[in-house]
Structures are given as structure tokens and as C-alpha cells.
Amino acid sequence: MPVRCSTRSLSNSRRGG
């Protein structure tokens, strides 16, 4: 799935957004 700044779980881990 696309990594956006909405899916806190993975987003924070990958982008830190």
C-alpha cells in the first residue's frame, strides 16, 4: 500500500510523518 502521512503505524516508521 502507498505510504502516506495518514497510516500512522507504518508512516511514522518509514517517513516519520
3D structure, described in words:
- This protein has 17 residues and is mainly α.
- Helices cover 41% and strands 0% of the residues.
- The chain contains 1 helix and no strands.
- It has one helix at 8-14.
- The longest helix is centred in the middle third of the chain and has 7 residues, at 8-14.
- The radius of gyration is 6 Å and the shape is globular.
- 0% of the residues are buried.
- The model has no long low-confidence stretch (mean pLDDT 58).
Main attributes of the structure:
single chain, 0% strand
User: Helix segment count?
Assistant: 1
> How far apart, in Å, are the first and last alpha carbons?
16 Å
What is the 3D shape? globular
Structural class: mainly alpha
Q: Specify the helix fraction band.
A: 40-55%
Q: How many strands in all?
A: 0
- Compute the gyration radius: what is it? 6 Å
Which band does the percent of strand residues land in? under 5%
- Biggest β-sheet, characterized? none
